[in-house]
């Protein structure tokens, strides 16, 4: 009788412990599922979080999404304006200063972004805000980054506030009418960090392009 009681007690304890383990395991799983995913996981490991730049440097968010850049104010040495070359497609502008050391060091980053975005069918243009003393100087830089030419601002009016604090190099994605979709400002002294930036810009542009195409097809 005592042996049977001990056996039944053992079965009861084992069953209780098994049930408790299942409940605890289920609770932990549900807790993990309920926890919000870290926003850092939105970005690929090799990517770069431009949100930090925009958060701590408000001017890095300019020009703001939805604002407009007058593309007709930018022309190449032939006199062709950006508006006439956009052809209703998305445009990725890289604002550079050929005499800027940061722009010189960032040619690898710019080339990487250009190659990736051109594969998406996006128009990629180099643009200069300040008038240069020599077109050949701008052309030399254009050759280095793989674009046909650098478009220079031809307007004599003051720079809009959204562009007056623009650092170089800066990538800006716009629609063909100049509506800003996103801005990526800055570069880095480290080649590895520039590569992370280039990967992130390319990734963001691809995502935005998919969203725009999805909206247009509806």
Verbal overview:
About 50% of the residues lie in helices and about 15% in strands. With about 220 residues, the protein is of the alpha/beta class. The chain has a single domain, classed as Glutaredoxin (3-Layer(aba) Sandwich), CATH 3.40.30. The termini are far apart.
Q: SSE layout and pairings?
A:
Blueprint: H1 2-34, H2 50-56, E1 74-75, H3 82-86, E2 91-95, H4 101-105, H5 107-118, E3 123-128, H6 135-145, E4 150-153, H7 161-164, E5 170-174, E6 180-185, H8 191-217
Parallel strand pairs: 2-3, 3-4
Antiparallel strand pairs: 1-4, 2-5, 5-6
Helix pairs in contact: 5-8
Question: What is the count of helical runs?
Answer: 8
The counted number of beta strands is 6
Q: Report the portion of residues in β strands.
A: 5-15%
Helix content: 40-55%
- What's the number of structural domains? 1
What class do helices, strands and sheet pairing give?
alpha/beta
CATH class: Alpha Beta
Q: In CATH, what is the homologous superfamily?
A: Glutaredoxin
Question: Major sheet: size, sense and barrel closure?
Answer: 6 strands, mixed
CA-to-CA gap between the ends?
77 Å
Based on the coordinates given, report the CATH architecture: 3-Layer(aba) Sandwich
Report the order of strands and helices. HHEHEHHEHEHEEH
Rg value: 27 Å
User: Low-confidence segments, ≥5 residues, pLDDT <50?
Assistant: 1-42
- Mean pLDDT level: 80
Strand order of the largest sheet: 1-4-3-2-5-6
Query: What name does the CATH topology carry?
Result: Glutaredoxin
User: What is the 3D shape?
Assistant: globular
């Amino acid at each position: 009788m005592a042996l049977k009681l001990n056996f039944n007690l053992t079965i009861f304890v084992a069953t209780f412990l098994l049930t408790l383990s299942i409940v605890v395991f289920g609770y932990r799983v549900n807790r993990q599922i309920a926890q919000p995913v870290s926003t850092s996981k939105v970005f690929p490991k090799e990517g770069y979080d431009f949100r930090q730049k925009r958060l701590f440097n408000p001017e890095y968010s300019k020009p703001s999404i939805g604002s407009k850049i007058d593309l007709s104010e930018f022309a190449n040495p032939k006199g062709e304006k950006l508006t006439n070359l956009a052809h209703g497609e998305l445009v990725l502008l890289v604002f550079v200063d050929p005499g800027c050391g940061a722009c010189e060091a960032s040619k690898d980053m710019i080339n990487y972004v250009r190659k990736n975005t051109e594969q998406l069918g996006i128009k990629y243009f180099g643009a200069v805000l300040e008038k240069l003393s020599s077109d050949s100087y701008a052309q030399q830089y254009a050759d280095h980054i793989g674009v046909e030419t650098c478009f220079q601002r031809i307007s004599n009016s003051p720079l809009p506030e959204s562009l007056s604090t623009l650092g170089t190099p800066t990538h800006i994605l716009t629609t063909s009418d100049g509506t800003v979709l996103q801005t990526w400002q800055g570069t880095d002294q480290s080649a590895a960090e520039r590569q992370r930036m280039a990967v992130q810009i390319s990734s963001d542009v691809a995502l935005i392009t998919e969203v725009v195409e999805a909206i247009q097809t509806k």
